[in-house]
Amino acid sequence: MGNVVSLDGILGLGELKASAAAGCTSSACGSSADPADLPPAVWEKVKNHPCYSEEAHHYFARMHVAVAPACNIQCNYCNRKYDCSNESRPGVVSEKLTPEQAVRKVLAVAQEVPQLSVVGIAGPGDSLAAGGKATFATFDALARLAPDLKLCLSTNGLALPDHVQRIKDLNVDHVTITINMVDPEVGERIYPWIFFGHRRWTGRDAAKILHERQMQGLEMLTSAGILVKVNSVMIPGINDEHLVAVNAAVRARGAFLHNIMPLISDPAHGTHFGLTGQRGPTAQELKDLQDRCEGDLKLMRHCRQCRADAVGLLGEDRGAEFTADKVAALAVAPDDEARRAYRDHVEAERAERQAAKAAARAEVADAVDAAVPPILIAVATKGGARINEHFGHATEFQVYEVGASGAKFVGHRRVDTYCEGGSGDEEAFETILRAIGDCAAVFVARIGGCPKAKLEEAGIEPVERFAFDYIEESALTYFKAHAGRVSQGAVQSRTHRDAVLRPAMPVARRA
Ligand code: CLF
Ligand code: SF4
């Protein structure tokens, strides 16, 4: 029997009980779940999917199995030595698996990680290149052996129209297509070639074929009732303005979610864009574009550009616990009891929190002058929608925009860990300052005197009084007090600062 993670451990509740000093009590402001404005059938599909629901990403984990090494196109932000950059975060080496190895790994992770709700295939090449054989063999087996896990795949879309029926037959509810352009003139600056119809195409012809196949695949999926997320890589000067048109085109074809991701570009990655000095967007450039595109089509802002073998909650990486050797040594027995118990727990917490969250929103809307500009707040969290991480242990900060109309998640900022072996790392602190420089405050479970003073000096207020409470309610409480101070002229709103999105190394493929 594997180690089953306790719910208290997952949600930081043990620490909550020990935290008598917390500002607002969790019973008073504890809520988070927001079924959103979705038809019940759609909510059922997305409520436990960490990528399709921002709320779910605080509670549920996904894993990727790297069974698809081949690719049928070339993107200028990709180096074939590395995993597919369309859904790939830099990190360490990705372990390529056979379908049999992949199924065993999924069953092993599922028994160890009760938060697991989704199994995705996102490379390391394209999941549907080479006929999608390994992808479908893996999904076929999982649909039989672990039917409670949602199946999810990501593709560049070139081969997609040929496989929609198979995807539907396997009850795959979630498909991601990376769409960076709807105009071949833009596309030829992103894709040097594609392989289609037994030959290689280049230039505008290649981009035109890719575009047509992507639109056809998108329409076929949405007609079949499958939820489609569109990923777009924001490339300043090439497709940044154009992504507004992409957003309109995919919205018109029924896409469910649009995920605009920053280009990760560095000469060390050896990609065309990296070697030619193409930069990625800043935090505010990305947010501005996402804000412009936000409308009927939901915008995803919590993507972590995962590795093709990622395991865990978004933002955490438990892949090293499930290497081939470790999985081979585990006794694997399909059993969904711990997962069911965990899902029941989340469901109960959602119901409990909805009213409290709505009340906190209403209180702020009543008390705060709508003219007070919203602010950004950085949050140290390790899950459960709570402020439950120490400043010095954070590997990322989640960023919320909070104003008179409410609090919403708008992104995350990856940082170096400040506290290494009990002492503060000055270089890491600089990366943190650059990453959250546009935030007015940082919410933490705990922080030492030294970083606290330096944050204050930089104009970012370190806030411990909400330790272990829920994020959104705490942000609203904080904003109410902040707005009061603004109205009295005690503080000024600063809305024009920017921050750096941190690039990182791509994931090297293992042969
Ligand atoms: Fe994986 Fe992608 Fe499915 Fe999620 S990831 S195949 S939809 S289960 Fe999620 Fe990771 Fe972003 Fe992808 S955070 S890279 S959006
Ligand atoms: Fe690379 Fe993915 Fe583009 Fe293929 S689709 S070239 S693997 S980024």
Report how far apart the termini are.
32 Å
Q: Hetero groups bound? A: FE(8)-S(7) cluster, iron/sulfur cluster
Number of strands: 18
Radius of gyration, CA atoms, in whole angstroms: 22 Å
| H/I helix tally | 17
- Which of globular, elongated, flat, extended, rod-shaped describes the shape? globular
Mean pLDDT: 86
* Sheet/helix structural class: alpha/beta
| Contiguous runs where pLDDT drops below 50 for at least 5 residues | 1-33
Overview features:
five-stranded mixed beta sheet, binds FE(8)-S(7) cluster, alpha/beta, binds iron/sulfur cluster, 511 residues, eight-stranded mixed beta sheet
Summarize the structure in words:
The chain is an alpha/beta fold and 511 residues long. It is 35% helix and 16% strand. The chain contains 17 helices and 18 strands. It has helices at residues 7-11, 13-18, 26-29, 40-46, 99-112, 133-145, 164-169, 184-187, 203-223, 243-252, 272-275, 283-293, 324-329, 337-367, 426-435, 449-457, 471-487, and strands at 61-64, 73-74, 116-121, 150-155, 174-178, 193-196, 199-202, 227-234, 257-262, 298-300, 311-313, 375-379, 396-403, 406-414, 419-420, 423-424, 441-443, 461-463. It has an 8-stranded mixed beta sheet with strand order 10-9-8-5-4-3-1-11. A 5-stranded mixed beta sheet has the order 14-13-12-17-18. A 3-stranded antiparallel beta sheet has the order 2-6-7, with helices on one face. Helix 5 (99-112) packs parallel to helix 6 and helix 14 (337-367) packs parallel to helix 17. The two termini are 32 Å apart. The model is unreliable at 1-33 (pLDDT under 50). The structure holds FE(8)-S(7) cluster and iron/sulfur cluster (SF4). FE(8)-S(7) cluster binds next to strand 1, strand 3, strand 4 and strand 5.
